[in-house]
Amino acid sequence: MTLLAGLALWVALPVLGVALLLTAARIGLGPSLPDRVVGLDLLSTLGISVVAVVALASGNDVYIDVAIVLALLSFLGTVAFAAYLERSR
Questions:
Q1: What does the angle CA 26 – CA 41 – CA 36 come to, to the nearest 5 degrees?
Q2: pLDDT reported for residue 1
Q3: What is the pLDDT of residue 5?
Q4: pTM of the predicted model as reported, rounded to 2 decimal places
Q5: Cα separation of 55 and 65, whole Å?
Q6: Angle formed by the axes of helices 13-29 and 33-58, to 10°?
Q7: CB burial string 46-63: b at 16+ within 10 A, e below
Q8: Residue 75 and residue 70: Cα distance in Å, rounded?
Q9: Which helix (H) or strand (E) holds 10?
Q10: Were 39 and a residue from 8, 21, 27, 53 both cysteine, which residue would form a disulfide, CB within 3.0 to 4.6 Å?
Q11: 76-80: which pairs have CB atoms within 8 A and are 24 or more residues apart?
Q12: Residue 6 pLDDT more than 90?
């Protein structure tokens, strides 16, 4: 493991973990549905970031494919929610 990969594990993952906890709290306390959906979108972005850090630390390129699939699913979910909000008005 290189120095950059070790730094990614010991610095980035704890910061992302704290961000995940704060985002989960925001989802639980969100006053409205759009606030919660934005929180879920941020949660998926943080999950993609965690997968990218793991890919950097392990040196395995397969994790990048996982991150891309997660990003596509997150985008589709956001578009579906926007279409739902548009129809409900």
A1: 40
A2: 64
A3: 72
A4: 0.84
A5: 10
A6: 170
A7: bbbbbbbbbbbbeeeeeb
A8: 9
A9: none
A10: 27
A11: 77/40, 77/41, 77/44, 78/37, 78/41
A12: no
